[in-house]
């Protein structure tokens, strides 16, 4: 009999909260395994025509979005100093900001801190809290949807990252 895949929940969390957090955590782990060992050239590779977001940009984008979600889930404003540290969501042209010269280990360490902040937040949430609404893109979203969205958004960009890796390796021969 083989290994059983499951979402490993944290006993300190309400059951549904634990499942949702586990989905985010597992996707962050999957992302780390996908990018494990890539070099700086691949980390900053922007596709065959140089017009795509690099892996560094995508990871930085996930960090930025997830940090904002953690504060949204806490129903707190993002501290100004943290907002300055993570930078804007997009540049003046509506594109993801450039990320150059930042080692993969630094990006992943930053993501670990976001995941830890999410874990600390999730440990405080009750099942009932999942139904609370928070502002999202001019409307509202439940906290339950927000945590699920963090997981889904991570997985969505993993597809872009895998495509960049495949294109880079094909180019390398």
UniProtKB/TrEMBL annotation:
InterPro entries per UniProt: DinB-like (IPR024775), DinB/YfiT-like (IPR034660)
Ranges of residues in domain DinB-like: 31-161
Pfam families referenced in this protein's UniProt entry, alphabetically: DinB_2
Full protein name: DinB family protein
Biological source species: Bacillus glycinifermentans
Gene3D superfamilies: dinb family like domain
Domain of life: Bacteria
Family annotation (SUPFAM superfamilies): DinB/YfiT-like putative metalloenzymes
